[in-house]
Predict the structure of Oxidoreductase.
Amino acid sequence: MTTVQLAGTRQLGDKQVFRMGYGAMQLAGPGVFGPPDNPEQAIEVLRLAIEQGINHIDTSDFYGPHITNQLIRQALHPYKKELCLVTKVSARRDDKGNWIPAMSESELTRAVEENLENLGLDQLDVVNLRSMYDVHKPAEGSLEGPLTTLLNLQSRGLIRHIGLSNVTPTQIKEALALTPVACVQNYYNLAERSDDALIDWLEQRNIPYVPYFPLGGFTPLQSDELSAVASELSASPMQVALAWLLQRSPNILLIPGTSKPAHLLANIDAAKLQLPQAYIERLNAL
Ligand SMILES: NC(=O)c1ccc[n+]([C@@H]2O[C@H](COP(=O)([O-])OP(=O)(O)OC[C@H]3O[C@@H](n4cnc5c(N)ncnc54)[C@H](OP(=O)(O)O)[C@@H]3O)[C@@H](O)[C@H]2O)c1
C-alpha cells in the first residue's frame, strides 16, 4: 500500500499514521459485549488491516469487556513499531453489558492497567479520556480530576499521550491548559455534523480529529441522495461517506469499524475515491 492509497499521513502522538485507520469495536460480540460469533474472522480482519498497511487502530478495554484488546494481542503481538494503538478509558461494563461511568482515580488507574495487560504493553501510545457526562453527546462538566489522574499515570510511564473523547470545546480548552492533547474523538459523520466548527478550530491548532461512528455506527448511514451519489461514482454509500470525511478536513483521521474482511477492504478503497466538488455540495446538503 502506498501513502496515497491510505489517504496520506498525519502525526498522532509521536507516530506518523495513515489517515485511513481501523476501529476495533465491532470485533466484540453483539452489543459490544462478550466474544464475537466468529473469533477467527476477527483475527483475520486485524491481520488484514496490518497487511494493508494500516498503522492506527482504535480500541478500548471496555469493548467486550477485555475481548477486543485480547483479540488485538492474539492477532498482532508483538506489534510493529509504527503501529499506533489508541485506547480509551472512563467507562466500565456491568454484568448485563450496560455502560457505567468510571472516571474516579481508582477506576481510571485500573482501566489503564487492564488495557496494558490485555494489549500486552508496558506503555499505551494514546489514551483518550472519554467523557461520560452524556453518552453520545458532549456535555459540560470539568475533566480536571480525571485528567490529573491520567497525568499521574503518564508520569509513571504508563501512558505516552493523552487524548479526549466525547468532549465540548470548553473541555478541550480546560485540558489544553493542563496537557497537550494528542487527538479529539467525537461522534461525527455526514448526518451528524454538530462538530463542524470544532473541526475547523482543531485543524487550526493541528490537533487531529477522529470521528467515531463515521459510517453511522450501529445504524449505518442510509439516504437516497447518498445512494444516488455512490451509484454515479461507481462506489458504495459507505465509501462515499468515508471519502467525504477525508475531504472534509486534512486533519481528520478515520477509524471505520467492521467485523468483516470484505468491508475492511472496501473501506480502505474509499481512500482512493476523490469526490468532485459538485458531489461534495450535494452531500453537504443532506
Ligand atoms: N469514543 C467513543 O465513544 C466511541 C464510540 C463508538 C465507537 N468508537 C470507535 O469508533 C470506531 C468506529 O465506529 P463504529 O465501528 O461503532 O461505527 P462505524 O464505523 O460508523 O460503522 C460500523 C458499522 O458499519 C458496518 N460497516 C462497516 N464497513 C462497512 C461496509 N464497507 N459496508 C457495509 N457496512 C459496513 C459495520 O458492520 P460489519 O461489521 O458488518 O462490517 C458496522 O455495523 C469503533 O470501532 C470504535 O473504535 C468510539
